[in-house]
Write a structure and sequence with these properties.
The chain is mostly helical. The chain has one domain: Four Helix Bundle (Hemerythrin (Met), subunit A). Helices cover 52% and strands 3% of the residues. A hairpin with a 3-residue loop joins strand 1 and strand 2. Helix 1 runs parallel beside helix 6 and helix 2 runs parallel beside helix 4. The longest helix is centred in the last third of the chain and has 27 residues.
Length: 178
């Protein structure tokens, strides 16, 4: 773990934490569409996309707030070149990846997710407090599908992942607005 973190990397980590916070907070107005579904866009409803995104955020916050001694870095396989390219491009192709079992949506009927989004937004906002730790930790932390990611890569993944689901949600809502 590097102790000498440059100002640029600190700024990048803080900015990434803020973007994840803002993107998560933008889910709240979508909650009123939780029961909307359009199979040509996704097999999941808007609510299920929100639930999944919140579950991923919560798991990622646990990783981002852990220290390197909580993992076994020697046993984490680094992310592939394909994953690194995805992180750089900022795009998760639709229909390519399967969500790990632990973050699959459980919701089968409409429930108000507004409070859940609010709690999750507060949770990710807390990342700004530890942005220095995130920026200075170059260890790899296992993602169940993508391989080992640094904490900065985890932040980037969160940002891309939330945007990915926001776009799907917008397409579902847009279809119903026609």
């Amino acid at each position: 773990m590097s102790t000498d973190v440059g100002d640029r990397k600190l700024n990048e980590s803080y900015d990434a934490c803020r973007r994840v916070f803002v993107l998560t907070s933008l889910l709240k107005p979508r909650c009123k569409y939780a029961c909307e579904k359009y199979d040509k866009v996704s097999a999941w409803s808007v609510g299920q996309h929100i639930e999944h995104t919140l579950a991923v955020n919560a798991k990622a916050v646990l990783i981002l707030s852990s220290d390197r001694f909580a993992t076994d870095p020697g046993k984490v396989v680094p992310a592939s070149e394909r994953v690194l390219n995805m992180l750089e491009s900022g795009i998760i192709p639709r229909g390519v990846a399967k969500a790990p079992e632990s973050v699959l949506p459980k919701m089968t009927n409409f429930v108000d997710l507004s409070d859940d989004v609010e709690r999750n937004t507060n949770l990710v906002e807390g990342l700004t407090v530890i942005h220095r730790q995130i920026a200075s930790d170059d260890e790899l932390y296992a993602h169940p599908s993508l391989g080992g990611l640094t904490k900065m890569q985890w932040l980037r993944f969160l940002e891309i992942h939330i945007e990915h689901h926001q776009k799907i949600i917008a397409d579902i809502i847009g279809h119903h607005a026609i």
